Amino acid sequence: MKLDRALLKKIFFILIILAVAPFAFEVVLLADVAGAEFAVFFLIYYLKTTAYIALERWLEFKRSVLAACALLAEMYCFRPRIMASHLAASSLILVLTSSLLLSCLMWLPPLYLSSGLFS
């Protein structure tokens, strides 16, 4: 049996239908009635709205992450001078005492000032 282009295409379409069969049974029925090629093109059209929904959710997630980063960038503890000094102090405390608790306590004052409780 010779594997030409048309046979490989039909095998590929049948494999796609078999992969999708557990999720969209109507594609299998459509392949039985109209043929494998038509069923695959119907499946592509059928999944277009799902792809648009997934793309829209991705863009919404990206916008919310950018908004969160913009809000974080405005916080007091992320100013370069404050960040550098507290990073150096907490690193020095961590090296000298090997206590993560004491190292994290260095960040409490800028976090309180960033929250607006003491401004």
Give a verbal description of the structure.
The protein starts with a helix and ends with a helix. It has helices spanning 5-20, 25-34, 36-46, 48-73, 80-97, 100-105, 108-115. The protein is elongated and about 75 Å long. Helices cover 80% and strands 0% of the residues. Helix 1 packs across helix 3 and helix 2 runs antiparallel to helix 3 (36-46). By secondary structure, it is mainly α. The chain has 7 helices and no strands.
Tell me the fraction of residues in β-strands, as a range.
under 5%
Stretches with pLDDT under 50, minimum 5 residues? none
| Mean pLDDT over all positions | 83
Q: What overall form do the CA principal axes indicate?
A: elongated
Distance between the termini: 81 Å
The sequence of SSEs as H and E is: HHHHHHH
Sketch the major β-sheet.
none
Cα-based radius of gyration, to the nearest Å: 29 Å
Number of helices: 7
Helical percentage = over 70%
Number of strands: 0
Given helix and strand content, the structural type is mainly alpha
Which short descriptors sum up this protein?
119 residues; mainly alpha; 7 helices
Write the layout of secondary structure elements.
Blueprint: H1 5-20, H2 25-34, H3 36-46, H4 48-73, H5 80-97, H6 100-105, H7 108-115
Helix pairs in contact: 1-3, 2-3
